[in-house]
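Help: read this over?
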Amino acid sequence: MRTGTSSSRQGIERLRKSIKVVVILVLLGYLFLWVMLSTNTYRTKWQPQLRAKTNTTFFGKQGANLLVFTFPVLLTASLGCVYLHLGKKLSGNAEGKSKKSRLAAWKRPALVKGPLGIVSRIELAFFVMFIVLLVWSLSMYLKNGFARITPMSAANHGQKVWEARWEDAGLRLGLVGNIALSFLFFPVTRGSSILRLFGLTSEASVKYHIWLGHIVMAIFTVHGLTYITCWIATDRVNQMIKWQKLETSNLAGELALLAGLGLWATTFGRIRRKLFEVFFFTHHLYILFMVFFILHVSVSYASIMLPGFYLFLVDRYLRFLQSRGNVRLVSARVLPCETFELNFCKSRGLDYRPESIAFINVPSISKLQWHPFTVSSSSSLEPDRLSVVIKTEGSWSKKLYQMLSSPSGLDRLQVSFEGPYGPSSTHFLRHDTLVMVSGGSGITPFMSIIRELIFISQTTQSKTPKILLICAFKNSSSLTMLDLLLPLTNTPSNFSNLQLQIEAYVTRDTEPATHNSKVRTIWFKPSPSDAPISSILGPNSWLCLGLVISSSFIMYLFLMGLITHFYIYPRTTFPNSARVALHVLLTCISIAISGSVAFLWNKNQNATDTKQIQNMETDSQEASPESSEYNSERELESLPYQSLSQATNVHYGKRPDLKKLILECKGSSIKVLASGPKRLRHEVATICSSTPADNLYFESISFS
């Protein structure tokens, strides 16, 4: 039996290596095409040959771009799904020790402060290479474009040479902006297999989306202004309202730019933080932006940026399907520090990693608002529960806290759920020591890590790293958040195998508070309409996602080919706007059919779990044990909480000396995680990047 298992494992590993090689080769070829796109070699040699072979009555001019730009990315996404599916079949927890990564030095912070935030050396290197690609493309476009403009060619269009070059410069800026737009949607595709292949999550990749968004809008704004000023200077203002049926529509481009500017205006830090709801709703202008953009450039050229947007649409539709129902909210723990934990029921087939996030909607507060929160539970330690911890900061969370802390209480709370989303793997066991630094509610991502390590220390032979948790709170009432390090149910009898040390700092209080610090637990009644949280595509979600991506794209090609061959091609002329409408409609139909079939099939598979939840009766339980201050006089009935108290040192009236605490840690490999306010994360990043020691591995965790 062991021999067969070992042979099967080796077969899976070989298959994964083969897929990895194919994916790398495809991506290298895809990136090489972007480098060559602006050259005369591509324009005069490669592109004509491609169009000659693909410009059929089924695909038209769009065929070449679909083949060289769309197909490689969707193939990579589909193969990536298979790669990740096979990875789940390998042992999850037995990570073991690993050799020092060759990229370890490149993952250290290179920039800490500034508009880009905390940026590692490898991120900075890729950012610089991307900027070089844009500069290279613009320079080649301008060089080749200006070389074709002569006094005679300009006169043929009724222009002078400077006017033709001015207008040509605007065109080339638009082409360069499309390069950045092609990558814009990859970071915000939450269930993306491509992100997971690079070891990224959608939450950690949001900053890439922000960078790309600013670049896209800056280039497109200059692109639009270049054309508008040229038209004004040459008395051709009427070009601004031009909407040609068969060629580029100027008016559509201007409408796309206006939608983009309205979206862009609310994305800057101060506006986004103070007026989040305005930012949230105006961000949906991306729909108008993309529709008018495609009308502006035509379907054929839009195929260049189609793959990223196509994967985003697949992900967005699947998320829509998951968020339609209500989930079973089992209980809530309400803390005196205006913080609460929501405990949901989940199917046992749903596995997720520490540092995952989930999106929650409470219709009684707002049917439209979805808010991201860090998952605090461990799917290994709590196989049938999923928890999130929420700190009241905005109006939405304050309303929810008031509902839960009301003396009259709640029998049931209707909640919709989306996610969870997280890394495909974790590497905590590869380090000797874990140093986790948090400020305020930044402790929530560390709850899931500690719970995961508690499970590993009790159930496997793997040696867990030594844990140093450094947490800072403003008030002593916030110390009750440490009670959430342990789950409400299925609490382990002991975690003596876990080397845990907690250094808690209360910055504003100089001594323990005397007010009531009881943690209140609320148990909710089940409803027939509630269902356990489950993966949108089931336990084999990656494999199903690959099937949805591939089948929907094949369906799109099939329908598009039929309509083009029998309806569009026989006509001598066909309006561009009608062609765009048809392609958008076919894309949406294909994604909707494939996604709905996968969703309904998985829903039937989960019918047993749903029935069990509907029949589940809530046990009448009292509130959890009172959570008092962490000192020598603390008396708790629960042994785990006693162990937690013994591992905790509380320091009142001062801030932690982070540099001293971090540099005093011993070990050949020390992972330093920082979560909380930007200032704290920057301070930790500075410490890790400035020290000459090569045993510190820094990671900034985005928490919600």
